Amino acid sequence: MSLGFVDTIVKGLNPEQLQAVTAELSNMLIIAGAGTGKTTVLVRRLAYLIIKYNIPSHNILAVTFTNKAAREMSQRIHDFVGEQNTRYLWCCTFHGACCKLLRNFANQAGLKPNFKIMDTTEQARIVKDCFDELKIEKTKECSPKQYAAYISELKDKGLRPHHDFGGLNGIYRLDDVYALYQDKCNKANVLDFSELILRSVELMKGNPDVRKFLNGKFKQILVDEFQDTNSIQYEWLKLISGENSNVLIVGDDDQSIYGWRGAVMDILNRFYNDYPHVTMYKLIRNYRSTSAILANANRLIGFNSRRFAEKNLVTERSDTNKVRVIQTNSPDKEAEIIAQLIKKYKVAYHYKNSDFAVLYRTNMQSRAIESAFVNAGLPHRIIGGLRFYDREEIKNALSYLSLITDHDDDVSLERIINIPSRKIGKVTLSKIKTVASQQGVSLFDACVLFCNANKKSSGIKSFVDFIQKAGKEFNDKCADYGIGDQVMNLLVESGLIEYYRQKDVDENHDELNRSNNIRELVDVISKLDASDFDPNMDFPDEDMDGNNHVSAQDGVTESDLNVNMDNTGHAARTLRPVEMIRGFVTTVAMNGDNDLGNVRSDEESGDTGVNLMTIHSAKGLEFPCVIVAGFEDGLLPHGINRYSIGDRKNLDEERRLAYVAITRAKNNLVLTFADMRMSFGNFYSGGASMFFDELDKDYLEYYVYNSRG
């Protein structure tokens, strides 16, 4: 591709974007305000690095905050400069990058390469087992779910068992639970999400050769949404970036809304001070919102203290629409008016239902809104509800496939050994666990031993025989029938399809159609591409004999990386179906936002309904019309009112949350509140949020509705 293509890369950029995209190689900090085209800048910068500076894609690491953002960026850079130029680019979340590292350096990390990633439900189940073994009584304040959250919090701080837990020191037997939990995870070769990052940090800290290799590999590192980074993620970044690496971060401290889950507020300042010769750029030209919306957003966020980089967003969009403020006397009336307003705006502005987003601070607010929409006949969908891959039937189908392709998967075995029923109760399962513990084997191997010692255990024997036969024949059967058809054959033979078909009938859940959900999963599997799960793509042969010069002298050899070599000495690219299924199961675990082919886009599925979601869920999205419900004291800011300001730090984050809500709107913004609201059976006075005092009244118009209006 010729350098003339550089003109295409920079075409259409504004002066600030152009400066950032075409900057010299250095450490960079881009302050990107809401709607200022930061994804465009990141994609063009990646293209510029590849085309202008001839940086090979395998020397570039791009880290995003969500899987959706990673996919969007990967697709856009692929479309921009072609597959050949981006084949080995790492574009993933922090967790995705850590998963790649640990797969390829499993031995050094103390893992088997086929480790499994578990979700929060599985995490809580292991903690429950710890409670049982330690004879800890479950209470409202002392629950497996809560302790699982504590453990994740400690890992996010880089803390292992038997260390000072700081503010969590007083939690009853937390250290004992954490230690036993981690021991169980290690023996089962499973990792929770927090462990992915902590184990990767420990890998690089404890293995200088691995760190040296990675420092040499990743010469250009780009990190998006940096304001949401926590301490362990920042430590990971510092470890993986070498002296000769250039790190570019993109962030906006005005949109930092994840302090409650560990995001560090001054992280931008830390980067600016920790890395040498950082050049800062600001993107302030907003391409999303009208001048009225931005006037209110700018004035509101201006009241925050300790902003890293003060800025006012500007736009060339002039519009006569002011921000509408609606006062009602109850949440039900508020919801009713919102439904009426949406119907009115659909006619006035030719909007579709999906052009609207109703945002709220807490999930409990959705009840009244949903009821009003049902009464008004307004189609709607709740963003952040039960996800496809979180459904029971999908988890169970994946557990069967995981166990068939990996007999050491204890978590999956425990989940599906009695689904459908094989008359294997808790007592029998406890005996199997005892055998596994005494013999130091997996639960599946313990099942085999149990069958040999108990000839009457027909349920367990049929289960063992099925899993063994399915695993042994999987690759050959896939070659005969195709991976999709063979997976369907196995799920039918397991009894799972019929189990959920009958369950739908018995429970009158035809609308769930759970057996059809499994068929949809099989359809996704039938379309899998082996290259999507090939670990050799993470560390291609360019890394072996190119700039990184990996050799025995460096302490990291080809055998240290889990790379299969063909007879020419190059990385082999063919994966067996068993490995594809393992890769797919991992991908599902890493991508929790319905994105593996089963969920259609709005363009494909038409007008999907009015979008209902929390403000946190709306981060990164935009809509022609945004309605923020419950813009009132006690809700936004949450737990704070004008008479009891509370913690300034919390108030600033609530203000940033309101700022994020406002800046989701493109054309129309509506802020609603109720004078009275009910919580736990008691009425309390809500009223207009204290943030109304900080908005630009020249761009507001007020409407008042009572129960009769």
Name the average pLDDT. Answer: 86
Dominant shape:
globular
* SS elements, strand count: 17
> How far apart are the first and last residues' alpha carbons, in Å?
65 Å
Number of helices: 28
Secondary structure: helix percent: 40-55%
The percent range for strand residues is 5-15%
Largest sheet: 7 strands, parallel
Low-confidence stretches: 542-573, 593-605
From the alpha carbons, calculate the radius of gyration and give it in angstroms. 27 Å
Account of the protein in words:
Helix content is 46%, strand content 11%. It is built from 28 helices and 17 strands. The strands form four sheets. It has a seven-stranded parallel sheet. Helix 6 (94-104) crosses helix 10 (193-206), helix 7 (120-134) crosses helix 8 (144-156) and helix 21 (458-481) packs antiparallel against helix 22. The chain is globular.
In terms of topology, how is this protein built?
Elements: H1 5-10, H2 15-21, E1 28-32, H3 38-51, E2 60-64, H4 67-81, H5 83-86, E3 90-93, H6 94-104, E4 116-117, H7 120-134, H8 144-156, H9 174-188, E5 190-191, H10 193-206, H11 208-217, E6 220-223, H12 231-240, E7 246-251, H13 267-274, E8 279-283, H14 291-301, E9 323-328, H15 331-349, E10 356-360, H16 366-376, E11 380-382, H17 392-405, H18 410-416, H19 426-439, H20 443-453, H21 458-481, H22 483-493, H23 496-506, H24 514-526, H25 541-545, H26 577-590, H27 602-605, E12 610-614, E13 623-628, H28 648-662, E14 665-674, E15 676-679, E16 682-685, E17 700-704
Parallel strand pairs: 1-7, 1-8, 2-3, 2-6, 4-5, 6-7, 9-14, 9-17, 10-12, 10-13, 11-12, 13-14
Antiparallel strand pairs: 15-16
Helix pairs in contact: 2-3, 3-4, 6-10, 7-8, 7-9, 8-10, 10-11, 10-12, 14-28, 15-16, 17-18, 17-21, 17-26, 19-20, 20-21, 21-22, 22-24, 23-24
